[in-house]
Amino acid sequence: MTLVSKSIEIKTPVQNVFTYFARPEHVSDQIKSDTIGMSVVPMDIKEGMGVGTTFRIIGDFAGRRLEWDCETTEFVRDKKISAKQIRGPFKKWQITNEFESLGENLTRVRMSVDYDMPFGLLGSLFAKAKFTKSAEKGMETALYNVRGLLEGNGSIPVYITLDAYKKLLAEKKRMNDVPVSTALTAIIEKYNALEAKI
């Protein structure tokens, strides 16, 4: 088994960071690099994206495409979110995001993935050679991207109704599954264009 863990401090209140991470597809928008890409598709959403919520992860890791389904197993507001694979290729896959308030406007986030690759010895060699480095780099990039977004101009929708979010996901799908942030930007641009005509 392999444990990959990265942490970062973000200059924003813990409840904002937690709310952002409570929507796994938000974070997948940030996990993009030349060697790693990931999409997260919510399947069965429980109240507040809490325990029992299921979602599918579709990942491209150093040229290897993997797909697996996960279920949220722990959801402690402003403290911790954990999910584990319930169907897929890994022998074990579990992600945990932990949140620690370091003050009114400072939060430490720790992202950890504990996994056991499929394909026996070959999978273990692949994990050591490529997957672990890709996962570490992807997690680090994601955390820096999230920090940049949440410390930015406050335009990230950290609070959104479920109905509005479903409409946003429908627009994302209509736009060929672009990142949520791209779909939201397009919606805002359309609204601004309509408003300018009035």
What does this structure look like?
The structure is a single chain. The chain is α+β, with helices and mostly antiparallel strands. It has two domains: 157 residues, Alpha-D-Glucose-1,6-Bisphosphate, Chain A, domain 4; 39 residues. 38% of the residues lie in helices and 35% in strands. It contains five helices and seven strands. α4 crosses α5. The longest helix is centred in the last third of the chain and has 31 residues.
Total count of helical runs of at least 4 residues = 5
- Give unreliable regions as ranges: 153-157
According to CATH, the homologous superfamily of the largest domain is: START domain
CATH-defined fold name of the largest domain: Alpha-D-Glucose-1,6-Bisphosphate, Chain A, domain 4
Which CATH architecture of the largest domain would you pick?
2-Layer Sandwich
Largest sheet: 7 strands, antiparallel
Strand order of the largest sheet: 1-7-6-5-4-3-2
**CATH class designation of the largest domain:** Alpha Beta
β-strand amount: 35-45%
Question: SS-based structural class?
Answer: alpha+beta
Shape: globular
**Quaternary structure annotation:** single chain
| Rg from alpha-carbon coordinates | 17 Å
Order of helices and strands: EHHEEEEEEHHH
**What is the overall pLDDT average?**
80
